[in-house]
Specification:
By secondary structure, the protein is mostly helical. Helices cover 64% and strands 2% of the residues. A hairpin with a 3-residue loop joins β1 and β2. It comes from Methylococcus capsulatus.
Amino acid sequence: MENSRIIGGRLALVLIVAAGAAGCASDKVKQEGPEAGAPRTHVDSRDPWEEWNRGVQSFNDGLDDYFMKPVAKGYQWATPKFVDKGVTNFFSNVDDVSVIANDLLQFKLLQTGQDLGRFLVNSTIGMAGFIDVADKLDLPKHYEDFDQTLATWGVPSGPYLVLPVIGPGSPRGVVGFAGDTAANPINYITPASIPWGAGAGRFVDVRADMLSATKIADEASVDRYEFIRNAYFQQRNYLIHDGNPPLGEDFGGGEGVEMEFELQGIEDRANEAIEKEKAKPVSP
């Protein structure tokens, strides 16, 4: 149960930095780090495609500022809190199909039973997952994906890779994303407009849930790109090791310990901001 809380917190952090990439366009000059063409004093061996990645992150930032953030704000304004929560729960329940499959592929048999029970309870008593009944029955949410499965099989992640719209990742993560997409039962519903519409709705829902916390990544580091990269690798490491990564793991070019404390403090503020936003009364 405790590991699930830890991993959930790490996911909150990575969603902040990946879904929003945080910050207004006017703030980006001071956040982008080294100027274009300037020599870099430190090259991260995990990021040989840094020039490409920075360009794509800049594109994603602009897309978020001028499209996703306004759409998410409109969704949040128009959607009652209980409906918003229900939509989030529904997509989380759909995700449990992939979680169960990856439980089996990683030979986590006890967790497979827990997640199968969670899915059955929420799909029936929880009205297709809109109500998270399983959490009240001590069936916690787990986070397993095909990228983690490949990691447990010994497949290396490969270099850091930022993709348009999708955000931070790696070559292994791209394969993992494809596998999880194939495991999503919604994607087999016809006509094709239903899966596409569901995917767009989920993306907006996630972005709206992160609105209250997106400014935190801007406060995290002078070079936001490096912070997001390090946060991504640390989050994946936590997931792969079920919240208990090896001690002394290096997350950022020799800055592993400092990065851990920095992320923990930012994560705590992120979770506090999210909880405060959820506690606000619903506007009439």
